[in-house]
UniProtKB/TrEMBL annotation:
It comes from Haloarcula argentinensis. The chain crosses the membrane at residues 33-50, 89-117, 129-158, 245-262. Belongs to the binding-protein-dependent transport system permease family. PROSITE patterns: ABC_TM1. Its main location: membrane. The keyword Transport applies. Residues 82-266 form the ABC transmembrane type-1 domain. It is found in: Cell membrane. This is ABC transporter permease. Keywords: Cell membrane, Membrane, Transmembrane, Transmembrane helix, Transport. Pfam families: BPD_transp_1.
């Protein structure tokens, strides 16, 4: 949204229609794509210019990073280390989302569960997931299980609060209408009315968890768990900054792909609301 100056608006301040085209089953805003291309090219140019002025162990050029990324891909090391990260990312996110969603729905729906667990939640929730790394190392070690535990903590609280708020904010009028129309049990009311109404909020929590937990993965691996994060810090310690940045870009690409997948699933599950 433009506030002070809109390059797509004419001199009278009226917003003109952007140039669009249709391809691959969707409409593309060519004006926005052009601005994005110019911005990306400008960023790469500044990066290249900076990399030319300093040693590569301080700031490698985009070409050097691309070369390091290609070398890791060809050697197969990239896929190996990415697979190691996924071995604790996927279980941690999956279990955290399920557990957090179930507890959030339960506390949001049941006054008894809410009253019993709210004190515990208020004590544990402010503790950052990374603060549990010490316990993960002591209890589970530096392997995949310990890293998955850290990821689980992050996904759990994000999904929990979105599910809790979604259920708790369900319209009272909607529940009364459903009761009037014959939904006469708490179980049917929860499954047929409350959860569908809270689903957008729950799926927002899922999407946020999928993205934020990549940060938890990298943080856990910085302490020794195998994976992409471990390669980032190891390469930096050896002044192989091109390789370190290459693995940082790998995380960015995987994040974008996982976010796209979650958005597709969300659109499918919420298609009935259109």
């Amino acid at each position: 949204m433009a506030t002070e100056f809109d390059p797509v608006a004419d001199s009278s301040g009226i917003r003109s229609q952007p140039t669009t085209t249709t391809a691959f089953g969707r409409e593309w805003n060519l004006t926005r794509l052009w601005y994005g291309f110019v911005g990306t090219a400008g960023f790469l140019a500044v990066w290249w210019a900076g990399g030319r002025e300093v040693p590569s162990y301080l700031l490698p050029t985009p070409g050097e990073v691309a070369g390091a990324l290609w070398a890791e891909l060809v050697s197969g090391e990239l896929l190996v280390h990415l697979g190691e990260s996924l071995l604790h990312y996927i279980p941690g996110v999956a279990v955290g989302i399920v557990a957090g969603g179930l507890l959030g729905i339960g506390m949001g729906w049941s006054l008894v569960i809410d009253a019993a667990l709210t004190p515990v939640v208020r004590v544990l929730r402010p503790i950052p997931p990374l603060a549990w790394i010490v316990f993960a190392i002591i209890w589970l070690g530096l392997g995949h299980t310990g890293a998955a535990f850290i990821v689980f903590i992050g996904a759990f609280w994000i999904t929990f609060y979105n599910a809790y708020e979604g259920v708790e904010s369900t319209s009272r009028d909607l529940i009364e209408v459903a009761t009037t129309l014959g939904v006469d049990s708490n179980r049917r009311l929860l499954w047929r009315v409350v959860i569908p109404d809270a689903l957008p909020g729950i799926l927002t929590g899922v999407r946020t968890s999928v993205g934020q937990c990549w940060m938890m993965v990298i943080a856990a691996e910085l302490f020794g768990a195998p994976g992409v994060g471990y390669e980032i810090i190891t390469s930096a310690n050896n002044l192989a900054m091109a390789r370190s940045i290459a693995y940082m870009l790998v995380i960015s690409v995987v994040f974008l792909l996982s976010d796209w997948a979650v958005r597709r699933v969300r659109s499918y599950l919420l298609d009935w609301q259109q």
